[in-house]
Amino acid sequence: MNRDLIFTFSKHALDQIKLRGISEGLVWKVLENPDQIVNEDGKKVYQSVIENGRFLIRIFVNYRKTPKVVVTVYKTSKVKKYYEGKI
To answer: pTM of the predicted model, to two decimals?
Structure first.
């Protein structure tokens, strides 16, 4: 599979991945197999619980573009705030 045909990354997203010390491998893992996808602010948020439930990786995607554009990425400890359903 050519990942670039499915997703592309904004400069902001690439900067945030680097700044926040999130591995590109983890980002691709979540994009390809998220625990869930939720709608927020007109974007799809691909998210997965990591590190034994301590953190949530959230990847905001503009799905109206072709290919889909990753807008930003971050890791949060506020799992219960953002994760929909039971963990």
So the answer is: 0.92
Note the pLDDT tens digit of each residue in 70-87.
999 999 999 999 998 876
Could you write out the DSSP letters of every residue in 9-77? E-HHHHHHHHHTT--HHHHHHHHHS-SEEEEETTEEEEEEEETTTTEEEEEEEETTSSSEEEEEEEEES
Structural domains in the chain, sorted by start: 3-79 (3.30.2310)
**Band of pLDDT at residue 1, cut at 50, 70 and 90:** low
CA distances from 75 to 1, 23, 57, 67 (A): 26, 11, 4, 24
